[in-house]
Amino acid sequence: MPLVHPTGPAEPLVAPALLAAFDGWVDAAGASTAAAARIADGGRILATFDADALYDYRARRPVLDVVDGVLTQLTWPDLTLKHVHVDGRDILVLHGPEPDFRWRELAQEILELCLRLGVVEWVSLGSIPAAVPHTRPVPVMVTASKPGLLGEDEQQGPPGLLRVPSATLSAIELTVSGGGVPAVGFFAQVPHYVTGPFAAGSITLLEHAGRHLGVEFALGTLPDEAMSQRERLDSVVAQDADSKAYVERLEALMDEERLPTGDDLAAEVERFLRDNGRGDGGTQPGPLGG
Fold this sequence. Notes:
Blueprint: E1 4-6, E2 17-23, H1 31-40, E3 44-49, H2 51-54, E4 63-67, E5 70-75, E6 80-86, E7 89-97, H3 103-117, E8 121-130, E9 140-144, H4 168-178, E10 183-191, H5 199-213, H6 222-238, H7 241-255, H8 262-275
Parallel strand pairs: 2-7, 2-8, 8-10
Antiparallel strand pairs: 1-3, 3-6, 4-5, 6-7, 9-10
Helix pairs in contact: 1-5, 3-4, 5-6
């Protein structure tokens, strides 16, 4: 049985670009899926997916509504492909919960769908925890499947080998790009001490993806949300000397124009936990975690 169920476009698509974001492994603070959901809002569904074959419902349980003691509704994990027009361009958005099963089959079927729809470029959106401060612009890690896909202001990296556990998103991107569809990725670096939504990360992803595709994505309420979150984080930091010193250390790294590596992140977290007497490694570092 197929995993992808196309509904077909209501109109011919002209050089569509496909943006993809899944919650889960590369969606720190929900920044990338929030960005994708904002782009897809109001879009027409072009394809649905076989959720029963893709998800482990014990790990990602459907949400049950109980009204006045009556079981009324289940909301199931839902992965969709939607079509929107942005500044006259056809944009497809694939977003939803990260699938648990059958990654390779799903990737192959999505490649076949991309080829049928005439997709000219794949854009992955993600967000990763990093040793960066909330007081500076959100850094973005940029990837590309081949030379020449990025603009002059888009710096590909990081240099050298970075070996990490893969997300479904990356597994699909590799299959799609291997099938002839050029692919780029934008991954916002979210302060690792932030728990909950991080609107600044979503804004940065929307701006980077928009510039790359030559369109402007509407930000809606995100700027107001980002300002409120910044004020809350500033207040928390100001009340704790250790937290303030830690953020200042991260600021110094960025002011030196040296983006933290994975080793930097591990070292900084270990240092913070050690300095604050938290040796278990499983506790959020100080009040910044809240």
